[in-house]
Amino acid sequence: TTITNHLPTAELQALDAAHHMHPFTANGELAQKGARVITRAKGVYLTDSEGEEILDAMAGLWCVNIGYGRDELADVAARQMRELPYYNTFFQTTHVPAIALANKLAELAPGDLNHVFFAAGGSEANDTNIRMVRTYWANKGQPDKNIIISRKNAYHGSSVGSGSLGGMVHMHAQGGMPIPDIHHIDQPNWWAEGGDMSPEDFGLARAQELEKAILELGEDRVAAFIGEPIQGAGGVIVPPETYWPEIQRICDKYDILLIADEVICGFGRTGDWFGSQTVGIKPHIMTIAKGLSSGYAPIGGSIVCDEVAEVIAGGEFNHGYTYSGHPVAAAVALENLRILEEEGIVDHVRDVAAPYLKEKWEALADHPLVGEAKICGMMASIALTPDKASRAKFATEPGTVGYVCRDRCFANNLVMRHVGDRMIISPPLILTPADIDEMMRRIRKSLDEAH
Ligand code: PLP
Description:
A hairpin with a 2-residue loop joins β1 (about 40) and β2 (about 45-50).
């Protein structure tokens, strides 16, 4: 059989189950019910093989910032494939898409973040960062300054290196992680862990855990701290405002490199070009992926400050990927950045979409199932609770409220994700107020049904 969209759904599902291993999935269980087959997408809507239109409040995996179906990106990809579909930049060669994208990123990134090392996605980029910060200190004559401090409930990718940085235990426990010399401190999740403290005091206390860890491990052993400006996959945890300035102070004081993982926050999601700008930090390295190409082509990378790039350039950096700076992906990313810029999409987030969504989102706290409702730009979460006053938690095993809620959303043609005791969204940035009204209607309906 030729497998096309024209086959009946059940047949496609059977063929999928027979040969396709889905990521982050209990494949045996999925095979029983069959995966939903997505056939096309336009704007903020997906279409499935039954012709249902699904509002994608996750922008794929937090990545389709400009929305689906932009022909300009397809045209650029086709043109680039005809002209130069592939060449590498390893052995004293370069090409125009890599040059142009690196220059554009240096222009967009704040301060002296002027140098780009490309990868095919966020996991690869964070692997680059692990090796880059350790090589930086080794080149400076401090090879023992190699511990990287990360956070519990962080997500930095799924390769062995980036997965070791991650702190979502159930995701990262399998398969021999973590690698040595990674240390995790607690996350700034006030709702779940703040107890009687005010959010401000709690934010400070959680940041000061970094200082404690540095003093315990030894200032001359700690290479870097890595964090997502707003934790995404861990449940869209918006930290108290006191948190990041204190982290910055501590990194400065002890000469620790600061890595901001901007894979989700970058390219407009927080209402600025980068989440670092929203939370007011000056990282030495930013991890980028996802919104860099709005997911239209796999590409990521590390944007590196002048000083780190200079020290790395002092020797050979024995690291790189076949698809580092892939010309088609780079050309697609450049076109995506042009659209983000020329159509004022970051301004749209800051001035229109995010303020409108914030008002509607925070009103969800009235719902009987909802504890806190948190939002930063176009990423938002609600904590589900059986008792708001005590901030009690529902059980999180399969079949419990979070799963029911997610399944009701999907049945109501809305993609919304569930993680632990939180429900999260990260929609395309082009969402209009009318789209937001429709999304909120489906969310409220699903919450009512789950209650
Ligand atoms: N870093 C963050 C903050 C992420 O959210 C993700 C993916 O969700 C990654 C890294 C990994 O990126 P990728 O899946 O492209 O390897």
